[in-house]
Amino acid sequence: MRRRSTGSATEEEGDDSIPESYEVVNLALPLERAEGRSRIDRSNSNQGPGKLEPAARQSNTQNTNTSREPEWRNSIDKRPSPARSRLLSNTSWKLAPESRHGQLDKTRSAEPPLINMPPEEAMAVDKMPDVRQHGRRSRFRSPWAISLLTLLVAALGLFSLGSIIHSFTNRQLDTKGCRMSYMRPSFAKLSDFDTEHTRFASKYSVYLYREGMVDEDTKVKGVPVLFIPGNAGSYKQVRPIAAEGANYFHDVLRHDSAAIEAGARNLDFFTVDFNEDITAFHGQTMLDQAEYLNEAVAYILSMYHDPRRSERDPDLPDPTSVIILGHSMGGIVARTMLIMPNYQANSINTIVTMSAPHARPPVSFDADIVRTYREINDYWRQAYSQKWANNNPLWHVTLISIAGGGLDTVVPSDYANLESLVPETHGFTVFTSSVPNVWTSMDHQAILWCDQFRKVVVRSLYEVIDVNRPAQTKPRADRMRIFKKWYLTGMESIAEKTLPHKEPTTLLTLEENSFAQGERLVLRNFGQSRRPRAHLLPIPPQGTPGGKRFTLLTDQKLDKPGESGKLEVLFCSVFPLHPGQSATLFSMNMDFSGDSLGSTRLACKNAASDVIALPASTRTTKMPFYLDEEEELLPFSYLQYDLEDIQDHQFVALVDKAVNPSSGWVVAEFSDNVQSHRVRSLSLRRLLAFGMKIKLPPNRPMVAEVKIPALHSSLLAYNLEMGNQVCGDETELFTPLLRQYISDPYESKYFVNVKQANINLHGVSPFMPPQLKWKAVQDGLSLQFWTDPTCNSSIKISLKIDIPGSLGKLYMRYRTVFAAFPLLVVALVLRKQFRIYDETGIFMSFSESLDLCLRQSLPLVLAALTCLSVSFAQASSDPPRPASSGFWGWRGNATETQVDFTKNDLLVGSQDPFFWFMVPLIGVVCVGVCVMVNFASLAIIHVSSIVYGWLSTKPGWLRYDDKRRSSSPAFAPSSPRRRLLTTAILLFLVSTLIPYQFAYLVACLVQIATCTRALRFAREARSNANYNFYNYAHSIFILMLWILPINLPILVVWVHNLAVHWLTPFSSHHNVLSIMPFIILVETLTSGKMVPRVTSRLRHLTSVLFFFLAMYAAVYGVTYAYMLHYLVNFAAAWLVALHSSTSSWTFAGISHIFDPETSENTRKRGKTP
């Protein structure tokens, strides 16, 4: 391997080599200067590389050929700079005996040429003064220089990034609709849960919540509920939900004898103080919390066995399980508890999480958290894949994931999806905008204190508990049915109707003329007959092509049996007359026959339990919700049944129970599914080009639904416009109401009084794992319209893709790409720099190398990655392959399919070839960001260099010689012994106390100092060698700078642990080999030593290494970002090996390092006397 022997940044003084890609090709000649004069030493052209000319030969040729040196060059060389008097660390300085002040002998060792030239070529170059002068200007090109191409690409990238951020903050925004909650909190610490029970007692603690003026007794008396805060969360975040739980039981449930008999008791809310631990970035912290929580659950359950701490009824069974509420990363910790060795079987069977990223980690900067996520998710998938319940340890566990939606800018709500983890029989994912009577998105913290949402959570928990069972909850199937009732709209395919399972409770006696004609019944007011009256609508027979369904919409609340409102809806069948049966079989008897002789008796079921709440839509409503200062809006009541659900009945009875005329309306009808359901099979490209137009005819049904299977991506947003609803002479009953929804996951959004709507969804998202059960066709986006059927006018609807609004959807899905994709650009730039340097001896600046990459390698790489991304997207849409049956079919089931849950982890994670442009777009944006970061670092280094120059300059009244002696040289390297000891101490601390991320931060700061001194040196001694070293040091700093964000989160976790006096070292971040190459490389650069050129075939290894780094950053960087540190660390090790190749290590040299006198004398001889 041929390498250039180099010792410091100044060894290559006078190197004029220019790469062939430059405008002027100027072959390098060794230059020498003494007392401001320079010349070309033609005698060196015959020497081989690495041979130094003796100092004695220099004295005969030092005053030759100075006329061709440019005037500005001579002026620079002649100025008496004290820093320039000590430029060369390998110069043989000789003191003249007669000199009083130690004048320097004008001798120095010659330097080998970077490129060997015959004498005639040197003479030819010597005859080209103009070309040489132009070459020098190219050599001293400013690092601030930027080509037009780089400027245009960077401007385009930064403009795209600015457009994305502007769209994210200003377009397609969900409206905030949470009402404020209030509480009177108090907390009782469980002091007895100490180090005898857990090793984390000094770091964590558990509290019992009590609501002031409601329940201030610290004894447990109900059902235990454990709240787990999220990343940097506080134990006090349980206050809103716990306060609502205490107040609801105190004000309502304790007076409800039926609820008490059914097993309802007070909820004892426990909460954990994690000292605001940062769990999103550190897997070990998450495991520590899970271990502590399992021990806390065991202690909490033991409290109910202790009569001194419990006031429970002794006849009730002792609790054996705890309900878990988890916020954010607390939900992931809750799932982690079930895979820990200290988990007590069946101690957890109900988990409700809020804004928890179940599908994948928020960031992949830590290897532990990526591995922990994989172990958790694999465990849950394997458990639910078991055929028999006895083999499934999670058979009795229900998991409900609630996402905040578009307002949550901390965790992407797409990550809350459970479709890849839990079957529908054991859990589901729902958005807060879908929850009845909530109907609004929420940010990451508001989901805990939003008043209308906390009421739903508390009521659902009170309905699933049953203190008569040891598990303290109802069976799993009942729990799932209750959660679906409280959290889903009721219009989903998995929503269960209660009407078919009921028994008739009402006997209805009517006149024979009470039957309505046709399939639609409309009432515009109530109480017109001033007495209760029933209106019958006959149920049509089955057999209609496409099927029929019954729909009812009213602005009144539907009465349950025994209530005295305005409207009650019954589904009835003819009841034969048998004396004495009416009093024994029915709890309610409604006789509207009056004095008529003929009457009809009907056995009826009340439909109020299946009512669906819809936001009121009138001319005065603007939002589905109302705020604190606004008047309360009563929702609409909606019923929807397929004909199969009501086939056992003959009539629908609408009972108007008002005795005085009053306002209100109701519309009930049977409609054909063919007329009310439409499927528009248009592609995204057609929608992008032409949009979509729909026209609702005048004789339309009340509810119309349009399904667009192609619209399933979360990266696109749409604008919907709806024409006016013209009703003519009659007053309209309600204004158009729109519901947009998807089924995977369950997300619905409502738009009242709709004229224009912003449509965006959380459907198919980048990097998300596939579903447990593969679907050939996505259901896509559905639009459901409620319009007044009495208005005989058509309504026009148009839907278009909102391109500016869609840009903002890229932010939450691709923000982590900036931790990896810029390394693609940086690695390619460094690869180009080293290739040019090994070929010509010029280490060009970062900007120049980036310009060359934009002209050559970067477009080709982005094109190849684009093709790869399209290939990945097509493979993602393919059905899963059958599982391997093993050797000769002896293992496994060939009919089973094996789902690859990691197939969307690569590159940009796209699952649709339509988004092929994401790779070029991200590449251009990252180029702009890299240019911006490069100039920002240049600014910091230049400012630091100026400050460093001020601090190192002495006053002018000092003697010149004293000034020269006292001025700090550009590089004043410490002794090898000091550097070795510093490195050894730092590595020892890494192996014992501090994580290697701290040492990496120190290395980055030292590299800034190295770049600062290198820039000052290059400014004062304008030569290729100095600028080579500065460009090299600067590029290494840029590379380290892009790795810094990957290491900072772990460092923050370590500092936080120190702040809470938790001094236990991390078990996973003390690998010395993970930081040693960085430390040695940075320490080597502090001595001003330039990396040697590699002229043998090994130079290709450097190119391959950086190219592999670039490809890994692009393909795997987002999912496995922590690996980028190790790859760059390996690159640093290679550079250290290159630096070490020019050093001769001997035992004598090593012993001199530890000899203070020898080391000090050697260091002094290397400096100016």
Could you tell me how far the N terminus lies from the C terminus, measured between alpha carbons in angstroms? Answer: 38 Å
Overall residue-averaged pLDDT value: 82
pLDDT < 50 runs, ≥5 residues: 1-140, 885-895, 957-970, 1162-1169
Helix content: 25-40%
Number of domains: 4
Number of separate helices: 31
Strand order of the largest sheet: 3-4-6-5-7-8-9-10
Number of E-state strands: 30
Q: Main beta sheet, described? A: 8 strands, mixed
Instruction: Supply the helix-strand structural class.
Output: alpha+beta
What is the CATH top level name of the largest domain?
A: Alpha Beta
Strand content: 15-25%
Q: How would you describe the shape?
A: globular
Biased composition (Basic and acidic residues): 32-42, 68-80, 97-109
EC number: 3.1.-.-
Transmembrane segments: 144-165, 812-831, 914-933, 980-1008, 1029-1055, 1075-1092, 1104-1125
Function: Involved in inositol deacylation of GPI-anchored proteins which plays important roles in the quality control and ER-associated degradation of GPI-anchored proteins.
Task: Please describe the structure with a list of short key phrases separated by commas or semicolons.
Rossmann fold; alpha+beta; eight-stranded mixed β-sheet; 35% helix; Jelly Rolls; six-stranded mixed β-sheet; disordered C terminus; globular; 1169 residues; 4 domains; single chain
Structure commentary:
This protein has 1169 residues and is of the alpha+beta class. 35% of the residues lie in helices and 15% in strands. The strands form 6 sheets. The chain has an 8-stranded mixed sheet, with helices on both faces. A 6-stranded mixed sheet has the order 13-20-15-17-11-16, with no helix packed on it. The longest helix has 36 residues, at 1024-1059. The chain is globular. The two termini are 38 Å apart. Residues 57-67 have a biased composition (Polar residues). This is GPI inositol-deacylase. It comes from Venustampulla echinocandica. It is a multi-pass membrane protein.
